[in-house]
Amino acid sequence: MGNFVSIISFQTTSGFAETNGLSRMGDYLVWYGKNRDKTLIHNLYEEQEIFVGTSNAKWVLMQNGNYRGITAKEESGKTSLPVGAQLYKPDNLLSQGAASAPQPFTFQDIQYQPSGNNHWKPNYPLGMERLAKSGRLHVASNSIQYRRFADDFAVKARGNLWTDTLTGSFTESKQYVVQTNTKVIQRYLLMTTDPGDLVLDITCGSGTTAFVAEKWGRRWITCDTSRVAITLAKQRLMTAQYDYYPLKYPR
Asked: pTM higher than 0.85, yes or no?
């Protein structure tokens, strides 16, 4: 377990198959590294969705500086948001651990101070003053919080649960029962390898891993005990980049 990195789960079906136990709706990749501390990991990102009324967009800041919570009609889409309004959510401004000295901070003629065993996350006092000048402070319930706008970050880091592998560019018809979606393999190779790295697949099957590795400039080795699998993979790889290598008898 010392070299265990993660388990990546990805969805493969939206329906429930008949079973006497728990229906299986996905598959998973078990990730180990020869040396976990030196394992190559390229963080991948996905578009950050904005959920009006929940999650990252519970409040709205108007152009005149006034702010309020999202209404039920705005959340349902029955009413449009005010022109020029910015969606945001209040975030914590405190970190655990007492400061070496008191940190009183005055905002809109009211003095605030970290309570208990806490201190301000931004540098004090310069960081707090910058937040105030940039309109990043949210006041509610006699406390101040950081104003995190919904469009601050257009993307977010992808985790180990992939539920988008059934939609959009991930949708593709299978030619073989155990065929893995090329987009799943592509995502994993981009996350764990650099161009020119060597990829080994000891169960070739239809050649999906080699196919993706070839496409993204990775070297590859693949093998199989079945001559049929090797023949299919070879033909797939030959025609992947050069469509003038079709079979003489494609059927």
From this structure: no
